[in-house]
Amino acid sequence: MIQWSSFKWFALVILIAGCVDAIGQSAELRGLLIDENGAPIPFANVFVINTSKGSITNENGQYRFLLDPGKHSVQFSSLGYETVVTELTIKSNERKIQNATLKTTVTSLGEVEIVANTRDRAKEIMEEVRTRRSDYLSHIKTYSCETYLRVSVDRKPSYKFKGDSADLPLTEVVTFDSIHYDTVFKRVRSDMIEATSTLYVKPLGIHREVVHAYIHREKRRPLELGYVAETDFGIGYDFTGTDNMIEFPLAAEDPNILFTDNSVRINFYENMIDWPAVCQKPILSPIAATSALSYRYDYEGAIIESEKKIFKIKVTPLFKSEALFEGHIFISDSTYALHSVDLNVLPAALLRGNELSIRQRYDSVGVDAFAPTDLKIDYEIPMEDEIFYGSVAGYFKNYDLNPQWPDSLGKMEVKAFDIGAFDKDTAYWVNSRPELLEASEIRFIDESDSLMLYYVSDEYYHEIDSAFNRISIWTPLIGYGHRNRAKGTEFFVMGILGQITPFGPGGYRHSLPMQFEKEFKDSKVLEFDIIPSYGPYHKDFKMYAGVGYTYYPKKFVRTYIDGGHYYDRINQYASLEQILARNNFADVTSIGISQQMEIVNGLYGDLSFIYSDQRPISFTSHSEWERLIFGDSLDGLDFARYIKSEFRLDIQYRIRQKYFIKGNKKIVVGSDFPDLFFTYRKGVPKLFNSEVNFDYIEGGIKHDLELKRLGKSNYKILAGTYLNKASLRILEYKYFRGSDAYFFSDPTRSMQLLGVKFSTPYPFVQANYVHHFEGAILGKVPGLSRLKLQLAAGAGALYIQQSNFAHMELFAGLERVVPIFKEPFRFGVYAVTADNSIGTAQYTFKFGAAYFNTFTNKWSY
Fold this sequence. Notes:
Elements: H1 4-23, E1 27-35, E2 45-48, E3 54-56, E4 62-67, E5 70-77, E6 84-90, E7 95-97, E8 100-102, H2 118-138, E9 143-157, E10 174-176, E11 179-181, E12 188-202, E13 206-218, E14 272-273, E15 283-284, E16 295-305, E17 308-317, E18 325-332, E19 338-345, E20 355-366, E21 369-382, E22 386-400, E23 413-417, H3 426-432, H4 439-455, H5 458-469, H6 475-478, E24 479-484, E25 489-494, H7 496-499, E26 500-504, E27 507-511, E28 514-519, E29 525-535, E30 540-552, E31 557-569, E32 585-600, E33 603-615, H8 624-630, E34 642-654, E35 658-662, E36 665-670, E37 675-683, E38 693-706, E39 712-727, E40 734-736, E41 758-760, E42 764-772, E43 790-800, E44 805-820, E45 823-836, E46 842-853, E47 858-859
Helix pairs in contact: 1-3, 1-4
């Protein structure tokens, strides 16, 4: 058996040998640019004259790029400095260091323009830039280009151990609260993503990508919080009803990796830069058509670079809490086109983290066409006990302004992977990089590649499973799970907190929820659910169980069978006051089967059949404390026992759904259009002695609508009716969520002042709307902007044919995003008023809370 340490050195030798062989006749030029005072010059240009070879210095003034052997003329230039041209000779496989010192440009009318009023001069330049912006944008709306992307994430603990010194070379693993770190004080690289692709872009933001190579290297601690080295995304759906049909990642990547593909693509010629992983609303470009309303501009000089005059403009945001940039933009004199940008996103606008900077260079790619060629992004995200440092390097070349759309992509497929895209060897990556990696980056690749082999070893599976399977002091409360990744199995038994129901039907109930799942190598999944429960007060035992099998993951084809004897909620989306009330439960014995699948792209269907024996809760004796808490709702709903056989069809259509295929899974990206949904329920008489006979249809539309700088809106319109009520029981009525006394519930799904309990057997129409201004108003009010308060407003309406009941309500509130354990939550206080046809007008205040899902980049409402 090969020892782990021996294998690691063996892998290093193979890697180095592969790199040397792959480099072949290439060489590398690297160095440092400083000014006459010895200070580094960031964002300077280094390129070989009469070639496309070159690079941009980083924030420390360093540069590096690949170069063919031979004699070359290398030009070093930066705005405000004299240009230097150096003749040099470089040999095969040589790593040549060429430093340069640039002198500050001598102030003269021939090279530097000095003006008396910097505001007026900046205004003149920016007016010309905005005038030509739309023309330049129209010439680059349809194009393709070759891309290279590298994303690196470093981690560093944000605390220090007592008595430790930052100067001590720590070589052993330090343990703190069961978290293992390789070092305490130094930044440690934990992730590196590299990708090459061809990007295709059309007007209206339509873009497609063919990925030629992709690799995500990780260096994780195996016992770190039970972390699992999985990077694939999946998609899942809860088909218990169209209202719950939502997408979610099955195995999401680290949310601190903000950019994993060309979603990093950014073009300042567009009015808005939409980065949902960075800001909750689009960021206004400093050269947008309306940018003069949000930015102040100062002229800081005109510098000669390669015989071209470049204007340097300082950009200052007028509203510090808005989604805006600050920093500098550089404008070419003759064309008034963007030369480059060096900007930061305002910290108050960031969803996560407190710093994000972007440096980007533009070049001419055709007649009156300018596009980004080099991109650098750096960001910082502080967590509870760690700080994450992200770095992005993007390179775009070989622009084609009249590309042929790739045949390998489906109509709505946004990304396709070449065969073997995940299996590129070392030689491919060495030849694909615009610049060679640092020694530390090569070491990281060596270690992470070795760890990747370790991650699929029996030793790793045992170690990571042991971390998940271990028993702690919290296990009795939370529950116990056991995982065997080698076999793809996992089960979980709920702890005491999930077993005890103090106020269940019939008093105290004790349950034992359990789950088991097995995922096969082809991504097919077998799952079991079982919930036995017992009520000691009435000595009644109940049981629910289900089994499901997903046998075609790319189409989400899943069969699920469930049933048992249990207490079922009548209103599945009840108010907090009703969720445990006895009159919201029925005693049910049932068996059902459901078939779920994606019929065509974006069209999801769930056809199910359920047979149930439904009985009222017949407890007649109750304790005094139960009567005190629940009052009249303690008694179960009074109805006659009956048998029901029901077919149900749930359909949801996501218009123009975007997706891509990765391995054996289909990954749904989302849609820019509304979702349509439809439900049909049929109560079949006499089938298995069924006593019901009804037909019910329900349909609607919902959409998350982004109104650019004005915030985001969410609306939902729902209507339903019974086509047949020959034998309709009260449990089959349409139920609405009752309103809570002080809690502001999801305004897209419920009313705020409707009453505690509400249902109907008659036709109805319901509409809900909410808009979050996200600082669009209060963020521009001096003084108030410092409070970081945001406005929200909305309305709800409900009409029921029964008694011509009509209900209308309006609400408005103040919200504020507050990080809790470094994760964003949105708290609000809302004034709500309502009136309806059977009561008097009402007015009250409510408190609400929403959370931000860092994987889907969406608020809960």
